Receptor-like serine/threonine-protein kinase (Glycine soja), 796 residues
Amino acid sequence: MAFSISLFLLVLLFSFQSSSSSLLSLNKGSSLSVEKHAEDVIVSPNQMFCAGFFQVGENAFSFAIWFNDPHTHNNNHTVVWMANRETPVNGRLSKLSLLNSGNMVLVGAGQITTWSSNTASDAPVKLHLQDDGNLVLLDLQGTILWQSFDTPTDTLLPGQLLTRYTQLVSSRSQTNHSPGFYKMLFDDDNVLRLIYDGPDVSSTYWPPPWLLSWQAGRFNYNSSRVAVLNSIGNFTSSDNYDFSTDDHGTVMPRRLKLDSDGNARVYSRNEALKKWYVSWQFIFDACTSHGICGANSTCSYDPKRGRRCSCLPGYRVKNHSDWSYGCEPMFDLTCSRNESIFLEIQGVELYGYDHNFVQNSTYINCVNLCLQDCNCKGFQYRYDGNQIFSCFTKSQLLNGRRSPSFNGAIYLRLPITNNFSKEESVSADDHVCSVKLHKDYVRKPENRLVRFFLWLATAVGALEVIFFFLIWGFLIWNLKTSSADQQGYHLAAVGFRKYSYLELKKATKGFSQEIGRGAGGIVYKGILSDQRHVAIKRLYDAKQGEGEFLAEVSIIGRLNHMNLIEMWGYCAEGKHRLLVYEYMENGSLAQNLSSNTLDWSKRYSIALGTARVLAYLHEECLEWILHCDIKPQNILLDASYQPKVADFGLSKLLNRNNLNNSSFSMIRGTRGYMAPEWVLNLAITSKVDVYSYGIVLLEMITGKSPTTTGVQNIDGEEPYNGRLVTWVREKRSATSWLEHIIDPAIKTNYDECKMNLLATVALDCVEEDKDVRPTMSHVVEMLQSHESDPRNIINA
Ligand SMILES: *[C@@H]1O[C@H](CO)[C@@H](O)[C@H](O)[C@H]1NC(C)=O
Ligand SMILES: *[C@@H]1O[C@H](CO)[C@@H](O)[C@H](O)[C@H]1NC(C)=O
Ligand SMILES: *[C@@H]1O[C@H](CO)[C@@H](O)[C@H](O)[C@H]1NC(C)=O
Ligand SMILES: *[C@@H]1O[C@H](CO)[C@@H](O)[C@H](O)[C@H]1NC(C)=O
Ligand SMILES: *[C@@H]1O[C@H](CO)[C@@H](O)[C@H](O)[C@H]1NC(C)=O
Ligand SMILES: *[C@@H]1O[C@H](CO)[C@@H](O)[C@H](O)[C@H]1NC(C)=O
Ligand SMILES: *[C@@H]1O[C@H](CO)[C@@H](O)[C@H](O)[C@H]1NC(C)=O
Ligand SMILES: *[C@@H]1O[C@H](CO)[C@@H](O)[C@H](O)[C@H]1NC(C)=O
């Protein structure tokens, strides 16, 4: 009964859709009019794209191309191109016409031509939207007179080339489609860059401006200047910036967009849910984009609150609704030496606009340098290691960002009569580290039904009464069947669910099959009632209340990266605290290393994947989340030997009150993998994970575990005394040192260049001085740059 009703409704739906008039092409002499913007739409043959008038404001329209998605509401389409983004046309009397001269013009009210294709042809031409989203003006022979792919706005579609003649320009905000401040283009030196081009200043922020192009893995000798994303998710650029999206390999709708926050992201669409998710982004840290908070401000980021802008002390925000205007001083500074004081703000970095730079400067010298200069607004004083401090005096206070790992402070010049405190006004903001989230959220079934019902009620005039009863029956039937799964999904907003203790007890057959131990709990294998295999961790330490526990768990549950073990749910009942994870058939890296199943290329890709997820969690989620226990037992391998790191965020769950001031009261981690900071009782930063990661790399290269002692070297010459790091370092000075250290299981079958790089990176990561160790995103850059081109030079 229910089936036949839904079939009937479906037929009805189709008959309604076909009655709306969409076009396949536009011929000479015809036009699209803004008043009929709902019907006058050109649709691509595969129904994927639409071109037509798109409403950008009250009574304001632009001619645009967007993804055709019938489920979208409130005109909230995913726009990929716009003809007139600067100058929208009036909602009355505006027209897009294909003239007999062969020119295509957008004429606004008052007969003002707002945009034109500048084409001419005596022969017949037609305007056609291709399946790839390219709007083309063709003549009968199929020659392209004009195409939208030649003038991108902020989006590149698969197959669309970014060339020396084109650039992407972000929009001003998510809702304001006019051109914003960020650009992606090939610079004069052939390198693809992201540039902030603000009202007053402009600067490059990607690749990192302090790196030479070859250090960032870029070629500047290839002058072809072309970049393209393909439909399976590979991006290639002539300057050697290449990547594959996290979900590469399958053809699906994708788009590369320079977003209004200055980051470029690749979005892919989950066809089942019609939802876009981020499958790649150019920048990991939300505060890297310049100008994001305007002048005289700082940007900070944490995953709970997202990105936040705040004014420096003594400054106040200019425009609360738009931080890119920055902050203005609340004081007048005289140039007299004795009327300035300096306010110290730790952990804030200001990039660029250095009036003067002195390496190895004392604090007093730096103060005097600033006081001598009437334009000096303050200075940056940074520790560079080896007892050397650098001094940068600032003529403008731009690109400020807060970063706990930054080893230095700014000293702000303020009038001596001030009483400004370090408390500042703060903004709220949008981007949470969940930009990479692509959990398949559960849709609430009633919503869809109600919407459907409403649509039906208005659409079906005469049959209304009959249908009312039919649908009512359908609704009740459906509600009955869906109430069972709804119950478990009341947490759908965070994408994972709550399990009862009994359910998990049953899944694990009474916690019978133990598969691991450590980091605060025992892990059991289980099978859920829906037949999914899971790993269930039962925490020993259950002091937290349920609310607190839930708050933390829901944040961990929102972390999502292809190289992170996914958490499917949790249980908090009475004193029981359990976490439910996906199950990895291939076991841990530790098991695979001891059974010699990994060749060098698998090891390399495990190294890269692990680095990626650490970079994602360290930098995008800032210092908020450290792993603190990176070791081969915690790196699990999926069916294709891609690594998935387990136990992220657990340190936070288990020891919630001790993370403050980046000092832990209790040593955590595993002997052999622990950074010296733990032992020396120094500040704990993300660099502890970098250290442990370095040890894991050494273990993967040499096949020797840092926790065993007395292992004999392969040649039998030198005894290996358990100090893996010292041993490898000593070998380094020898010629063809790789031969001496590499895991005998790999034999001679390896890419020398890559393994050399891996070993070099590993040794950098295990430097005693945490400030000398690279960050995880730097590690990713190094490993990645080499992945695409073996000739590349490495800055060792
Ligand atoms: C429009 O869509 C985007 C992404 O799908 C979403 O984040 C946003 O909230 C939507 N806005 C409205 C007004 O529906
Ligand atoms: C895409 O990238 C992947 C991984 O880098 C590579 O294995 C594959 O060959 C590439 N495919 C194409 C068509 O370039
Ligand atoms: C320059 O880049 C293009 C496009 O990526 C590539 O086809 C070409 O081989 C490159 N030329 C050199 C000399 O590397
Ligand atoms: C503040 O910013 C908004 C949004 O850009 C703008 O409409 C408004 O005019 C600005 N106000 C001032 C005082 O500049
Ligand atoms: C930032 O502060 C300086 C004074 O320190 C001031 O000259 C400048 O105009 C301010 N910038 C903005 C955008 O208000
Ligand atoms: C600063 O020095 C100038 C001249 O040296 C003097 O006139 C002025 O009163 C001093 N100001 C303060 C606040 O000490
Ligand atoms: C730094 O400066 C101090 C004193 O000016 C000097 O003793 C030291 O050698 C300098 N260090 C370096 C590395 O130049
Ligand atoms: C100091 O603070 C008080 C109140 O907070 C304010 O009224 C006064 O103007 C401030 N003085 C200066 C020099 O800014």
Observations:
- Residues 464-488 form the longest helix (25 residues).
- The longest strand covers residues 49-57.
- Residues 336, 338-339 surround 2-acetamido-2-deoxy-beta-D-glucopyranose (ligand 6) (CB under 6 Å).
